Structures are given as C-alpha cells and as structure tokens.
Amino acid sequence: MLSKIPIDLKNVSEDEIDKEILRAGIIAELDAVNLYEQMAALAKNDDIRAVLLDIAKEEKTHIGEFQALLLRFDTQQKEELEAGAEEVEKELSK
C-alpha cells in the first residue's frame, strides 16, 4: 500500500476495530485507483491502458463495497456523508 494507515490498528479498541479495518480498506483501494489511473495516463500501449482503466474501475467498486459496510456500522459517518452531499448541492445551486 502506498499510503500509510493513519493509525496503528493494534491500538484500536475492540468495538472500533471493524470500522477502522473498513477505512483502511478504503484507503488501500483509493491508492490502487490513483496508481492504475496514473499508469494508464502514462501507458503508450492502448491495450495496457485499457486493462489498467478496467482494473481501476473494479477498485472503485471495492471502495463502494467497503463504504456500504462502513455506513452500516458507523451511523455518524453516514450522517456526515449525507450532510456533505447536501452542502455540495447547496453550493452548486447558487
């Protein structure tokens, strides 16, 4: 993983560990998306570029899977995600 997990998972309380594992998974998948899309932008071969972009798309699905699970276990995260979406809508509708 290119990014460092921001916390030491060994120091996380038992009731928080699952949420932090899901967040670490999201971080890893975001890293993968960034890496594959950057490599695709650099690739000279169209086939390589296409495969890299397809893999990046799959990683985005994985992010969605981790996020869906996280939102089941962390109601505050869900509320803040919804609040953030509302703020964007308000800002864009000005």
Radius of gyration (CA) equals 17 Å
Q: What about the largest sheet?
A: none
Number of strands: 0
Count of discrete domains: 1
Order of H and E elements: HHH
Shape descriptor: flat
The portion of residues forming beta strands comes to: under 5%
Give the topology, please.
Blueprint: H1 17-42, H2 46-73, H3 75-92
Helix pairs in contact: 1-2, 2-3
Structure description:
The chain is mostly helical and 94 residues long. The protein has one domain (16-92). It is 77% helix and 0% strand. It contains three helices and no strands. It has helices at 17-42, 46-73, 75-92. Helix 1 (17-42) runs antiparallel to helix 2 and helix 2 crosses helix 3 (75-92). The model has no long low-confidence stretch (mean pLDDT 93).
Could you give a quick summary of the protein structure above?
The protein is built from 3 helices and no strands. Helix content is 77%, strand content 0%.
Q: What brief labels describe this structure?
A:
single chain; 94 residues; mainly alpha; 77% helix
